[in-house]
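mind reviewing this stuff:

——
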Amino acid sequence: MESSFDLHGRRALVTGANTGIGQAIAIGLAGAGADVCAAGRTQPNDTRRAVEKLGRSFIAIEADFGAGAEFARVVAEAEASLGPLDILVNNAGTIHRADALELTEADWDAVHDVNLKAVFFLSQAFARRCVAAARPGKIVNIASMLSFQGGIRVAPYASSKSGLAGLTRALANEWAPLRINVNGIAPGYVSTNNTTALRNDETRSREILARIPAGRWGKPAEIAGAAVFLASAAADYVHGAILPVDGGWLAR
Protein backbone atom coordinates (compact mmCIF):
# COMPACT_ATOMS: atom_id res chain seq x y z
CA MET A 1 0.00 0.00 0.00
CA GLU A 2 1.43 3.38 -1.01
CA SER A 3 2.11 5.71 1.90
CA SER A 4 0.44 9.12 1.88
CA PHE A 5 3.81 10.49 3.01
CA ASP A 6 5.59 9.17 -0.09
CA LEU A 7 7.24 11.93 -2.17
CA HIS A 8 8.60 9.83 -5.04
CA GLY A 9 8.16 11.69 -8.31
CA ARG A 10 8.01 15.06 -6.50
CA ARG A 11 10.50 17.90 -6.90
CA ALA A 12 11.28 20.35 -4.11
CA LEU A 13 12.97 23.76 -3.99
CA VAL A 14 14.46 24.46 -0.55
CA THR A 15 16.07 27.80 0.28
CA GLY A 16 18.98 28.05 2.69
CA ALA A 17 19.66 24.33 2.56
CA ASN A 18 23.41 24.39 3.12
CA THR A 19 23.25 23.99 6.92
CA GLY A 20 20.93 23.59 9.87
CA ILE A 21 17.18 23.26 9.49
CA GLY A 22 17.19 23.81 5.72
CA GLN A 23 19.75 21.09 5.20
CA ALA A 24 17.81 18.69 7.42
CA ILE A 25 14.59 19.40 5.53
CA ALA A 26 16.25 18.87 2.14
CA ILE A 27 17.62 15.53 3.32
CA GLY A 28 14.28 14.57 4.88
CA LEU A 29 12.39 15.31 1.67
CA ALA A 30 14.93 13.28 -0.28
CA GLY A 31 14.54 10.43 2.18
CA ALA A 32 10.82 10.45 1.43
CA GLY A 33 11.58 10.24 -2.30
CA ALA A 34 11.75 13.83 -3.57
CA ASP A 35 14.39 15.28 -5.87
CA VAL A 36 15.82 18.51 -4.46
CA CYS A 37 16.98 21.91 -5.64
CA ALA A 38 18.78 24.02 -3.04
CA ALA A 39 18.93 27.80 -3.49
CA GLY A 40 21.16 30.07 -1.45
CA ARG A 41 24.34 32.12 -1.24
CA THR A 42 26.79 29.28 -0.65
CA GLN A 43 27.35 25.91 -2.26
CA PRO A 44 25.52 23.21 -0.26
CA ASN A 45 28.12 20.51 -0.85
CA ASP A 46 27.35 18.50 2.29
CA THR A 47 23.64 18.59 1.46
CA ARG A 48 24.35 17.45 -2.08
CA ARG A 49 26.31 14.45 -0.86
CA ALA A 50 23.60 13.44 1.61
CA VAL A 51 20.77 13.77 -0.93
CA GLU A 52 22.63 11.94 -3.68
CA LYS A 53 23.56 9.18 -1.21
CA LEU A 54 19.81 8.61 -0.86
CA GLY A 55 19.59 8.12 -4.64
CA ARG A 56 17.80 11.39 -5.38
CA SER A 57 18.67 14.08 -7.93
CA PHE A 58 20.14 17.31 -6.56
CA ILE A 59 20.90 20.71 -8.08
CA ALA A 60 22.06 23.97 -6.51
CA ILE A 61 21.21 27.52 -7.57
CA GLU A 62 23.08 30.58 -6.33
CA ALA A 63 20.71 33.25 -5.00
CA ASP A 64 21.04 36.01 -2.41
CA PHE A 65 17.56 36.54 -1.01
CA GLY A 66 18.64 39.67 0.81
CA ALA A 67 19.86 41.44 -2.31
CA GLY A 68 16.88 41.53 -4.64
CA ALA A 69 17.20 37.99 -5.98
CA GLU A 70 15.38 37.37 -9.24
CA PHE A 71 12.71 35.12 -7.80
CA ALA A 72 11.10 34.11 -11.08
CA ARG A 73 14.56 33.29 -12.42
CA VAL A 74 15.29 31.01 -9.45
CA VAL A 75 12.08 29.02 -9.97
CA ALA A 76 12.54 28.88 -13.75
CA GLU A 77 16.13 27.71 -13.41
CA ALA A 78 15.13 25.04 -10.90
CA GLU A 79 12.42 23.71 -13.21
CA ALA A 80 14.70 23.82 -16.25
CA SER A 81 17.20 21.56 -14.48
CA LEU A 82 14.99 19.40 -12.28
CA GLY A 83 11.54 19.47 -13.87
CA PRO A 84 8.24 21.01 -12.72
CA LEU A 85 8.34 21.86 -9.02
CA ASP A 86 5.77 20.43 -6.62
CA ILE A 87 7.14 21.72 -3.30
CA LEU A 88 8.63 25.02 -2.12
CA VAL A 89 10.23 25.30 1.33
CA ASN A 90 10.97 28.90 2.31
CA ASN A 91 13.64 28.31 4.92
CA ALA A 92 16.32 30.96 4.26
CA GLY A 93 16.35 33.45 7.10
CA THR A 94 18.49 35.87 9.04
CA ILE A 95 18.50 37.48 12.48
CA HIS A 96 19.96 40.67 13.94
CA ARG A 97 20.31 41.00 17.71
CA ALA A 98 20.42 44.53 19.12
CA ASP A 99 18.57 46.79 21.52
CA ALA A 100 15.58 48.35 19.78
CA LEU A 101 16.93 51.80 20.67
CA GLU A 102 20.07 51.08 18.64
CA LEU A 103 18.53 49.55 15.49
CA THR A 104 19.06 51.25 12.15
CA GLU A 105 16.81 51.27 9.12
CA ALA A 106 19.41 49.15 7.31
CA ASP A 107 19.25 46.55 10.11
CA TRP A 108 15.46 46.44 9.83
CA ASP A 109 15.42 46.13 6.04
CA ALA A 110 18.12 43.45 5.94
CA VAL A 111 16.05 41.12 8.12
CA HIS A 112 12.68 41.80 6.49
CA ASP A 113 14.06 41.46 2.97
CA VAL A 114 15.16 37.87 3.62
CA ASN A 115 12.55 36.69 6.11
CA LEU A 116 9.41 38.17 4.58
CA LYS A 117 9.81 39.91 1.23
CA ALA A 118 11.75 37.06 -0.36
CA VAL A 119 9.23 34.51 0.91
CA PHE A 120 6.33 36.31 -0.71
CA PHE A 121 7.92 36.84 -4.10
CA LEU A 122 9.42 33.35 -4.32
CA SER A 123 6.04 31.90 -3.36
CA GLN A 124 4.37 34.06 -5.98
CA ALA A 125 6.79 32.87 -8.67
CA PHE A 126 6.21 29.23 -7.65
CA ALA A 127 2.42 29.60 -7.49
CA ARG A 128 2.21 31.31 -10.88
CA ARG A 129 3.87 28.31 -12.50
CA CYS A 130 1.61 25.87 -10.66
CA VAL A 131 -1.48 27.76 -11.80
CA ALA A 132 -0.26 28.09 -15.38
CA ALA A 133 0.32 24.32 -15.54
CA ALA A 134 -2.91 23.50 -13.65
CA ARG A 135 -0.97 21.42 -11.12
CA PRO A 136 -1.15 21.40 -7.31
CA GLY A 137 1.65 22.66 -5.11
CA LYS A 138 2.84 22.67 -1.52
CA ILE A 139 4.46 25.68 0.14
CA VAL A 140 6.06 25.28 3.57
CA ASN A 141 7.26 28.45 5.32
CA ILE A 142 9.68 28.23 8.22
CA ALA A 143 8.28 30.49 10.91
CA SER A 144 9.46 30.72 14.53
CA MET A 145 8.43 30.78 18.16
CA LEU A 146 8.64 34.54 17.62
CA SER A 147 5.73 34.25 15.22
CA PHE A 148 3.78 33.99 18.50
CA GLN A 149 5.98 35.88 20.97
CA GLY A 150 8.05 39.06 21.07
CA GLY A 151 11.47 37.84 22.10
CA ILE A 152 14.28 40.03 23.45
CA ARG A 153 16.59 42.27 21.38
CA VAL A 154 15.27 40.83 18.10
CA ALA A 155 12.58 43.32 17.04
CA PRO A 156 13.12 42.95 13.25
CA TYR A 157 13.18 39.15 13.50
CA ALA A 158 10.03 38.99 15.65
CA SER A 159 8.26 41.39 13.31
CA SER A 160 9.26 39.48 10.18
CA LYS A 161 8.34 36.07 11.62
CA SER A 162 5.00 37.34 12.92
CA GLY A 163 4.41 38.76 9.46
CA LEU A 164 5.33 35.42 7.95
CA ALA A 165 2.62 33.69 9.97
CA GLY A 166 0.08 36.21 8.69
CA LEU A 167 1.35 35.86 5.14
CA THR A 168 1.04 32.08 5.38
CA ARG A 169 -2.63 32.40 6.32
CA ALA A 170 -3.34 35.08 3.71
CA LEU A 171 -1.85 33.05 0.86
CA ALA A 172 -3.61 29.90 2.09
CA ASN A 173 -6.93 31.74 1.84
CA GLU A 174 -6.26 32.80 -1.75
CA TRP A 175 -4.53 29.72 -3.08
CA ALA A 176 -6.39 26.81 -1.45
CA PRO A 177 -9.01 26.92 -4.25
CA LEU A 178 -6.11 26.64 -6.71
CA ARG A 179 -4.91 23.39 -5.04
CA ILE A 180 -1.88 25.09 -3.51
CA ASN A 181 -1.40 24.35 0.18
CA VAL A 182 0.41 27.06 2.15
CA ASN A 183 1.46 26.14 5.67
CA GLY A 184 4.26 26.85 8.10
CA ILE A 185 6.47 25.22 10.71
CA ALA A 186 7.48 27.08 13.85
CA PRO A 187 10.67 25.49 15.15
CA GLY A 188 11.41 25.92 18.81
CA TYR A 189 14.90 26.46 20.09
CA VAL A 190 17.05 24.37 17.76
CA SER A 191 20.84 24.02 17.64
CA THR A 192 21.70 26.03 14.51
CA ASN A 193 23.94 28.93 13.52
CA ASN A 194 21.12 31.36 14.35
CA THR A 195 21.01 30.23 17.98
CA THR A 196 24.75 30.07 18.63
CA ALA A 197 24.75 33.31 20.62
CA LEU A 198 21.88 32.11 22.81
CA ARG A 199 23.45 28.73 23.46
CA ASN A 200 26.74 30.39 24.36
CA ASP A 201 25.02 32.73 26.82
CA GLU A 202 24.88 30.58 29.97
CA THR A 203 22.13 32.62 31.62
CA ARG A 204 19.83 32.78 28.58
CA SER A 205 20.44 29.14 27.70
CA ARG A 206 19.58 28.06 31.24
CA GLU A 207 16.41 30.18 31.21
CA ILE A 208 15.33 28.75 27.84
CA LEU A 209 15.95 25.14 28.83
CA ALA A 210 14.03 25.63 32.07
CA ARG A 211 10.89 26.44 30.07
CA ILE A 212 11.13 23.63 27.51
CA PRO A 213 9.23 20.55 28.77
CA ALA A 214 11.50 18.30 26.69
CA GLY A 215 14.45 19.77 28.61
CA ARG A 216 16.83 20.19 25.67
CA TRP A 217 17.56 22.11 22.49
CA GLY A 218 16.01 20.65 19.36
CA LYS A 219 17.92 19.05 16.51
CA PRO A 220 17.53 20.25 12.90
CA ALA A 221 16.55 16.73 11.80
CA GLU A 222 13.56 16.90 14.13
CA ILE A 223 12.00 19.59 11.94
CA ALA A 224 12.23 17.44 8.79
CA GLY A 225 9.32 15.15 9.67
CA ALA A 226 6.92 18.07 9.88
CA ALA A 227 8.15 19.32 6.50
CA VAL A 228 7.64 15.91 4.90
CA PHE A 229 4.10 15.79 6.31
CA LEU A 230 3.16 19.26 5.04
CA ALA A 231 4.72 18.55 1.63
CA SER A 232 2.89 15.24 1.22
CA ALA A 233 -0.59 14.03 0.30
CA ALA A 234 -1.16 13.41 4.02
CA ALA A 235 -1.60 17.19 4.39
CA ASP A 236 -3.87 17.79 1.37
CA TYR A 237 -6.60 19.21 3.63
CA VAL A 238 -4.23 21.31 5.75
CA HIS A 239 -4.25 25.01 4.80
CA GLY A 240 -2.90 28.01 6.70
CA ALA A 241 -1.55 26.07 9.67
CA ILE A 242 1.55 27.00 11.65
CA LEU A 243 2.81 23.75 13.20
CA PRO A 244 5.00 24.24 16.29
CA VAL A 245 7.87 21.77 16.68
CA ASP A 246 9.15 23.16 19.93
CA GLY A 247 9.66 20.53 22.62
CA GLY A 248 6.50 21.83 24.29
CA TRP A 249 7.66 25.47 24.63
CA LEU A 250 4.31 27.00 23.73
CA ALA A 251 2.43 24.58 25.99
CA ARG A 252 4.37 25.70 29.07
